[in-house]
Design a protein that fits this description.
- The complex is a heterodimer of chains A (518) and B (193).
- Helix content of chain A is 64%, strand content 4%.
- Chain A is mainly α.
- Chain A folds into two domains: 244 residues, no CATH class; 119 residues.
- In chain A, strands 2-1-3-5-4 form a five-stranded mixed sheet, with helices on both faces.
- Chain B has two domains: 57 residues, no CATH class; 89 residues.
- Chain B has ten helices and no strands.
- The longest helix of chain B has 16 residues.
- The radius of gyration of chain B is 20 Å and the shape is elongated.
- The chains are: A mainly alpha (518), B mainly alpha (193).
């Protein structure tokens, strides 16, 4: 294939992937978080693997979390820490790695829609590159986000494998499915369906490679546990036992079975009026994708504890279907325009001209793709700016940037989390200073902090709690909270002059947090 | 059929056993055991004294009474105890007893955990309120209704409880009806989580 032909063939996709990369890099610079799990289930243990200093959430004591993801994330964190140990480079590199991995989503969407036509493929890739729910999660250290980056390429491979069975493709599919399982085992029904999709009728040709790939993926996932000194994959059984058999997840709130669907529709806001019918049209083209989405939604709906992020794979699969459906609907409109144009031509020369123009306009390849991409950007904007989704763009920025600011205080020798609403409230990965940390809360917090005043010289507290700190503290910053009422400024950094002496005693952050069941 | 059922039950039991390590056999503590308030005042947690250590071991092994006694001990300490994480220790022992089914401990844990009236009731506190309510602690029902009407509970989080309350006999009838009526009343705007 000539270079020119290759450039023509992949140029548009490369452009879309470039846009995807730019959007993700912009998001890398934000300290936003959808859920605390991103920090304390993945980022903190990864940082702990590199530095030995981390806040262990209760899930790690209960042994219901795996070490594969933290081990992978520890690589960019180690590089960042080696290059600039006093900075946040380790966080940016970690997010950068996640952003790069997530570029597999638009490429996979392109590949899955390609059999229906180039227009389908490019529009699907564009939606995969820009859709807010994909972009937002692309840089998050979370199981759901990594699940997308692994399982959409797996779906693309499954579709290819079904058309052209091959040992290498089968191995790659097995590997991705197994890693997807290790990252988020709750997707097992969907993973099983993807495997079935790939196997098709020629299971004899596919199974050896697929089995080998699955074994390799599980071995890699288990290796993450073994390397960090834990039994391989035992955490999965423990997690199921805790959450399903013992009903432990119900501790975090329960919702009715239809909640995931109703909440998703609320999240899509007015755009749902377009997305749902387009999704139905797209499902006629590719019913496997609809089945996969249902295999995500239905099992999660049967579990009492529900969160929006849990079904992200299902949600975004539906968006892919809608993207495919939108091109089909455009095609239908195009056919209607073709039918209408000659009829118009019989009536008068003017209307013939108009009809001809209209036909050219809707039929032009790039015009059609541009119109569809702009239409999807419009839907994207509706969702991204909706009442539910818009706060996500800034969520956590004040809280987690405050941790960074606290760590950057000159001469910090001890940190107190004072009267914070919930714990964990400390992230060593963001504080990035190996200093003792203390926890004070409850009605005796001021007396306790006074008794331990010489053990810390930086405190994180609400602005109104500041005067309850020991004497000598002054307010340094309430990051990004200038617009808040003073009683809502919960995350402020206070500092006193001088050093520290003594130990954290009974208020050492980790054991104090564990006493609170966190 | 029987063999398959037994295998399934065995598998479920094996799965459940993965959740938690089996605790060691509880040691016997003297019947007239006394916990001294002087130790926490000096900065020594009572669990580090022989009497407290014995109770803590029993509590860790599943003795609800021992866990409740330790929680109550920290609650009842007079004055401030600034060298000890008193609130953390109270929460710890009450949670331990609550997680093993004590409605009283669940009620006390919930009250300790739920501290900010400008936010929704934390999930774990809400779950403990449910345990207390179902364990026939009437104050828990009143508390839940108050928090619901103050906009401190997400409606979806009451779905399972409402279904439970729909069954007559789950609570004394007048109490059950009062709670249902309270939960059907209008609420303030939902507080942030």
């Amino acid at each position: 294939m000539s270079l020119k032909r290759l450039a023509r063939r992949i140029g548009a996709l490369a452009l879309v992937v470039g846009v995807a990369l730019v959007l993700r890099i912009i998001l890398c610079s934000r300290m936003t978080v959808l859920h605390a799990d991103e920090i304390w289930q993945y980022q903190e243990p990864a940082y702990g693997l590199v530095t030995g200093s981390w806040v262990r959430a209760w899930e790690f004591h209960a042994g219901i979390r795996g070490w594969f993801v933290p081990l992978v994330l520890s690589l960019p964190i180690a590089v960042g820490h080696a290059l600039a140990p006093q900075s946040q480079l380790h966080i940016y590199l970690m997010r950068g790695l996640l952003a790069l991995i997530s570029l597999g989503v638009p490429v996979a969407w392109y590949d899955m829609a390609r059999p229906f036509g180039r227009r389908h493929a490019l529009v699907a890739a564009w939606v995969g590159a820009t859709w807010c729910e994909v972009v937002y999660f692309a840089v998050r250290p979370s199981a759901e986000a990594l699940g997308l980056s692994l399982l959409f390429p797996a779906m693309a491979l499954a579709q290819r494998l079904r058309r052209a069975p091959g040992a290498r493709t089968a191995f790659a599919l097995g590997l991705l499915l197994a890693l997807g399982f290790v990252v988020r085992f709750h997707y097992l029904p969907a993973i099983g369906l993807i495997a079935l999709w790939g196997i098709g009728h020629r299971w004899r040709q596919v199974m050896p490679g697929l089995t080998l790939g699955i074994a390799a993926g599980l071995a890699l996932g288990g290796l993450g546990d073994v390397v960090t000194g834990h039994p391989p994959l035992l955490w999965i059984w423990r997690s199921i036992a805790f959450n399903v058999v013992e009903g432990g997840s119900a501790l975090f709130g329960t919702q009715p079975p239809w909640w995931l669907v109703t909440y998703q529709l609320q999240t899509w806001s007015w755009a749902a009026l377009a997305i749902v019918p387009l999704m139905v049209v797209g499902a006629r083209r590719q019913p496997w994708l609809l089945a996969i989405a249902l295999a995500v939604f239905i099992p999660h709906s049967l579990i009492a504890h529900k969160e929006y992020r849990f079904v992200l794979l299902g949600t975004t699969t539906l968006i892919l279907l809608a993207a495919i459906g939108s091109v089909d609907v455009y095609g239908m409109l195009e056919s209607q325009a073709r039918k209408w144009a000659p009829v118009a031509g019989k009536t008068s020369p003017d209307s013939e001209k108009t009809g001809s123009r209209l036909r050219r306009l809707v039929s032009g390849g790039w015009v059609a793709i541009t119109a569809l991409c702009l239409g999807w950007l419009g839907l994207d904007a509706i969702v991204a700016m909706s009442d539910i989704f818009y706060p996500y763009w800034i969520q956590g920025d004040d809280f987690f940037t405050t941790q960074v600011i606290a760590g950057e205080q000159p001469g910090i020798c001890g940190l107190a989390e004072f009267a914070q609403v919930a714990h964990p409230a400390l992230a060593m990965s963001l504080l990035n200073r190996n200093v003792p940390a203390l926890l004070f809360d409850g009605p005796e917090a001021p007396a306790e902090a006074r008794a331990m005043a010489d053990r810390f010289n930086v405190a994180i507290a609400s602005q109104l709690s500041g005067p309850r700190l020991p004497p000598g503290y002054h307010l340094v910053a309430c990051w990004a909270q200038d617009d808040y009422a003073i009683e809502d400024r919960d995350e402020c950094v206070f500092v006193r002059a001088g050093g520290c002496r003594g130990t954290a005693g009974d208020f050492a952050y980790q054991p104090a947090m564990e006493r609170r069941g966190k | 059929m029987i063999v398959r059922t037994l295998i399934a039950l065995g598998a479920l039991a094996a799965l459940a056993s993965c959740a938690r390590e089996r605790p060691p056999a509880p040691p016997a503590c003297p019947a007239n055991l006394v916990l001294s308030a002087a130790d926490p005042a000096r900065g020594v947690p009572v669990e580090d004294t022989p009497a407290g250590h014995c109770l803590a071991a029993r509590a860790a092994a599943g003795d609800i009474t021992a866990a409740l006694r330790l929680g109550d001990f920290y609650s009842a300490l007079p004055g401030t105890v600034p060298l000890i994480d008193r609130r953390g220790r109270q929460v710890h022992w009450y949670r331990l007893a609550a997680d093993r089914g004590s409605p009283l401990a669940a009620w006390r844990a919930a009250r300790l955990i739920d501290t900010d009236p400008d936010r929704q009731v934390p999930n774990d506190a809400l779950s403990y309120v449910f345990v207390a309510l179902k364990g026939d602690i009437p104050e828990a029902g009143d508390y839940l209704v108050d928090q619901w009407q103050a906009g401190r509970v997400d409606p979806g989080k009451l779905w399972a409880l409402r279904r439970w309350l729909d069954h007559p006999g789950t609570l004394p009838e007048d109490q059950r009806k009062d709670i249902i009526a309270g939960l059907n009343a209008s609420t303030d705007e939902l507080e942030p989580e």
